[in-house]
Amino acid sequence: MSRLFGSVRARATLAATLVVAVALVAAGTAVLLSLRSNLLGEAGTQAERSAREVATVLAVGTPYADLSLDVDDRPVQVVDDDGVLVAASEDLERISGTGVDAVKPQPAASPGGEHDDDADDADDDDDDSGESLEPGEIGGRITVSDGSATIDGDTEDYRFAAVPVKTDDRGTLTVYAGAPLSAEHGAVNTALTVMLIGFPLLLAVVAWVTWLVTRRALRPVEGIRREMAAITASEDLARRVPVPDTHDEVARLATTTNETLAALESSVERQRGFVADASHELRSPIASLRTQLEVAAAHPELLDLDGAVADTVRLQRLAADLLLLARLDAGERPAEARVDLAALAREAAEGRTGVRVRGAEGPVSVAGSRGQLGRVLANLLDNAQRHARSAVEVTVRRDGDAVVAAVADDGDGVPAADRERIFERFVRLDAARSRDDGGAGLGLAIARDVAVRHGGTLTVHDAPAGGALFELRLPGDRAGTARDM
Questions:
Q1: What is the pLDDT of residues 398-416, one digit of tens each?
Q2: Is 362's pLDDT higher than 90?
Q3: From CA 340, how far away is CA 480, in angstroms rounded?
Q4: Tens digit of pLDDT for each residue in 191-208?
């Protein structure tokens, strides 16, 4: 059961069914209440009409004995000011809801009797409804109530209307007439039966349709899930999930999943290549150092101490480069320190032959890691000195909100086709250059990665002297620049 309702398909079906059920119950309740209200209003109108017909006859002075109160077998009562029943339907056996439970009229008093005196006194009073009526006038305020009555053995529910009427000789009389509620009960019961039968069937149809629609909508998702499970099991990142032709969210999900797989495959391939290249680069100095130590162990007089130190230094630099690249790949954020790039360029150029620094005389501040930015400038100067014929020039300047450090040499330059490739790891354009002289091919890759981590760029162009011009562009430290000024 928990597995069933743990699926999106089951939850969507359940939610849709519940929403429709709540809507149907609310709508059904409103329909029943409206139907009942309308039918009760119609019954009240019929009762009022019957009561007014009797009141009209009484208003013209018709005696009680001449009243016709058995129309349509509806209960009718005529009550005087004292609450005494003076006329009623002939077959009326029981009644409730009118306030007068009597069903047999009391004998009427003679015109000159005590009852007539009371009627004369009542001529000056208002009727029970609070209206002031003239003789022969029928009241306009109607009182409606619900009750029941038994006529000729048949008991039904009725809606009663009470209509006051003022007579000349009998005072104010109240006519109670009832209209049966059987039609109202029948209609409401019929509507309720239809709803009790129809609503479950409608809910079943809604649930079935929702189940089919969600199954069709989620079928591509299940295909994506199965393919991802297969990719995970096989570890074959070259596989891709199927993209449906629906052009909807599921199709976009499949497209994004394939893009993620492609990026992951590329990352894994780069990682494998990086590990292979690093192993290859480490093998050479380690093998050379081991050979020298083994020779020295057997023949101490043949120890090449300078070569061993050089291999150790090279191994140390390569390990430091690999460690920095690993930290950059892990997303390490640079420190947000204020760094004077002009002073850093002068420090990097100090002690180097043929390197000249020019540009801004005052501080040129950027935000970042002093150590990593110094490493970028040192790598660019190392690369420039390896390829320069005679001179290397470093320029630091402000360019709007950015700070630019340019390193130019007078060498052969970089072909346009290779100006992005040189920033890849372990790439050396001069295949004939020895590893001892040229390094491992990580300097420019590290410089590009550090520049990107600092929110900047590192590009290469043609230098004015004909060589290569490497341009490092970083966001300026606005707070630091304002303080410098």
A1: 988 899 999 999 988 899 8
A2: no
A3: 9
A4: 999 999 999 999 999 999
211, containing H or E segment: helix 182-234
**Residue 76, number of CB atoms within 10 A of its CB:** 26
**pLDDT at 457 exceeding the cut of 90:** yes
Average confidence (pLDDT) over 145-173: 90
Looking at residue 113, the DSSP 8-state letter turns out to be S
Locate 335 and state its tokens. 């420190």
| pLDDT of 290 strictly over 70 | yes
Domains of the chain: 1-233 (no CATH), 249-329 (1.10.287.130), 337-484 (3.30.565.10)
Collect all residues with Cβ–Cβ distance below 8 Å to 219 and sequence separation of at least 6: none
Q: Which residues contact 72 (CB under 8 A, 6 or more apart)?
A: 50
Nearest-5° angle of CA 310, CA 314, CA 318? 170
Write down the pLDDT at residue 130: 57
Cβ pair 214, 12 in contact under 8 A: yes
Average pLDDT over residues 147-168: 90
What distances in angstroms separate CA 347 from CA 25, 214, 352, 391, 480, one per listed residue? 82, 67, 10, 17, 20
| CA distances from residue 57 to 75, 88, 263 in whole angstroms, order as listed | 17, 14, 98
What DSSP assignment string belongs to 281-328?
HHHHHHHHHHHHHHHHHH-GGG--HHHHHHHHHHHHHHHHHHHHHHHH
- Poorest-pLDDT segment among 84-98, 213-227, 300-314: 300-314
Torsion angle in degrees (nearest 10) through CA of 170, 174, 175, 177: -160
Contacts of 124 (CB under 8 A, 6+ apart): none
pLDDT at 6: 59
State the number of CA atoms in the 13 A half-sphere of 315 facing the CB.
16
- How far from 125 is each of 56, 78, 122, 176, 283, CA to CA, in Å? 21, 19, 5, 21, 125
Burial class (CB within 10 angstroms; exposed 0-12, middle 13-18, buried 19+) of 284: middle
Residue 459 in this model has a pLDDT that exceeds 80 = yes
Indicate the pairing of strand 172-180 with strand 154-166: antiparallel
- Residue partners of 340: CB distance under 8 A and separation at least 6: 363, 364, 365
Q: Which residues contact 304 (CB under 8 A, 6 or more apart)?
A: 292, 295
